[in-house]
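Attaching the record inline, Q. Sequence:
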Amino acid sequence: MTQSEIRSALAELGREPSRSLGQNFLHDQNLCRAIVRQIAPGPGECVVEIGPGLGALTEPLAETGAEVLALEKDRVLAERLQRVFTGRIEVVPGDALEFDLRPLWPRQPVKILGNLPYYVSSQLIFHFCSELSPARRALFLVQREMAERLCAAPGSAEYGLPTVLLGRRWRMTRGRLLPAGVFHPAPKVESALIDFELRGPGELPVCDASVFERAARAGFSQRRKQLRKLLAGEFPALDWTAVRAAAGISDTARAEELALEQWIALANALAPVGAAQDVHGEMFDVVDADDRVIDRRSRGEVHANNLWHRAIHLLLTNRAGEIFLQKRSLAKDQNPGAWGSSAAGHVDAGEDYEAAARREIREELGLDAGLVSLREAVRLPPTAGNGWEFVRVFRAEAEGPFRCPPSEVEIGAFFPLPVVREWLRRRPQDFTPAFQECWQAVLG
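Structure, as predicted:
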């Protein structure tokens, strides 16, 4: 939109740009098209636009053939967008900070684009770049100062907590600077584009995300203090000598001196994530066609030779009727990175099905298994899809919070059943074959 078109549209609506909503409308059409080209939306891709306003970025987005989901807090502007772009985009009125990210998972691939209000840009970025977001790319227009903070190098004055927390999952690159004159009204500061690209598997070591965040928040809580003193307050049993040696940092290190890789090493020194599975050391019962034990072999032998064995799956729901799903760690020997049941695992040699289910509740969810009421839902025969396992599926209810070990689970979250149903329909490849069988048998 041109500046005159913006003024005309606002006049028709009887509105002035809202300071409380941080409204600064882009009016350089060439710039808007360049921004859309940078995020490169493809036909059929889902692009979530935060704060479309009068539609300066929305128009070139809609022309790409992408599925545009426009989140607009201003009710009047949301209604205008619905009129102007009828049938071309989906408008979601309301506060973007309250937008539920979970229904986006069936709509992958997802990209995020937003000319963010300065006063709430940090909160919006953390929300849309959280672990629950399925986005792999995001492009935000923010205050120049914020872009420089997020892309700052260790040891600089700008380097801080947001740089570290977001950097664990995202590579952030500051793009072009935008002068105040490309906005109406013109803000008092320069703006900048910042490009977020999700890190690939194995790009950085795995760590316990909650320990990583606790350590970083403690470390940056008082920038002038040494880490040793700040971490001792957050981790009372801290053995600083051992931790600093394992992380490779100095005795007098301060938070702003540590690079991202050192923060990850520090988190792993505080709470090691555990070793990869020992496929030869773990023993399973091998069973016959009647599920009777006939032998005992290692995990590696069982899988390599397609021997019949036993497993359990847990489908856990909360009071809202949502199901807890886990995304398997990339360290798993089978289906790494795939979404699966609330908890699942093999029945160890000499163990029965219910005992295995309660062990997995403790190991994968961090719950007191004795407080969880289990009921058997269904029994499934061995198939190629479930890895030649006799499977017993258990149901249970719990609200959490859960403590999922990073060596086992990358992400865990509750999802509404209709979202999972649509997700399975659109993208069955995102799920383990065994979970798909369990879902079909119990909830399909």
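The chain has 15 helices and 18 strands. Residues 353-365 form the longest helix (13 residues).

More tomorrow.
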